[in-house]
């Protein structure tokens, strides 16, 4: 029997070398953006620094959440609230951004509840936090892409919406007809990731399991579970945000000439 690989022997060392490498990579990213005139050099630096601070804080909080069920639920609620606000503000600047809570919640909550109920994911922070975080992140991304594309399509093709209504379609039906294809494009990243997994990319769950000492078979099983769950979560999120846009619940302030 082969020896068990411990996580201590495989994880990245947290030392000055890691800090130096991160600094060089962040500086290189900002430098390329500046030289190429992409206009996001400062944003890249700030994003990297913010990520470091947030992850350090989260690491401390998770230690407490792992030991207390009430704190675990509070932590998950905070994750959800941040995702809703982030997604909502990416889609629109008016108060309708609050409706974004619906697609994210309805995409993630049933899946997590089903996984806990059937025993596949134990009601423990060590399992629930990463699984919920991955699914909430997927729902956030899909909701933002679908919401923005749907609203932009309706704004660009406003005349076609009016024409569809003139031949008898209801406002909701006309909006769905025009925005559906654009919103559905939000599923393409998840589909591409699932199609190419193992051939082009090795996603985070797979690599993380390997670094933690799991066997390749176990890592592959976990990654497959994550990818399929993400497809379901993102499909629900896209469908619901499209419906909210079509019904006029999620809107965008009119642009002034």
How would you summarize what this structure contains?
This protein has 257 residues and is an all-alpha fold. Helices cover 73% and strands 0% of the residues. It has two domains: 13-65, no CATH class; 69-246, no CATH class.
Overall, the morphology is globular
Reading the helices and strands in chain order gives HHHHHHHHHH
What share of the residues lie within helices? Answer: over 70%
State the distance separating the first and last CA atoms: 72 Å
* Rg over C-alpha atoms, rounded to the nearest angstrom: 21 Å
Fraction of residues in β-strands: under 5%
Number of strands: 0
Which structural class do the helices and strands define? Answer: mainly alpha
Averaging pLDDT over every residue, what do you get?
87
Oligomer: single chain
InterPro entries: UPF0014_fam (IPR005226)
Organism: Wenjunlia tyrosinilytica
Protein name: ABC transporter permease
Subcellular location: Membrane
What does this structure look like?
With 257 residues, the chain is mainly α. The chain folds into 2 domains: 13-65, no CATH class; 69-246, no CATH class. It contains 10 helices and no strands. The chain has helices spanning 16-35, 41-65, 69-91, 101-117, 125-156, 158-166, 171-184, 188-196, 204-211, 216-246. It is globular, with a radius of gyration of 21 Å. Mean pLDDT is 87; it is low at 1-10. The chain crosses the membrane at residues 12-36, 43-62, 68-87, 99-122, 128-147, 197-218, 224-246. This is ABC transporter permease. It holds the Pfam family UPF0014. It is found in: Membrane.
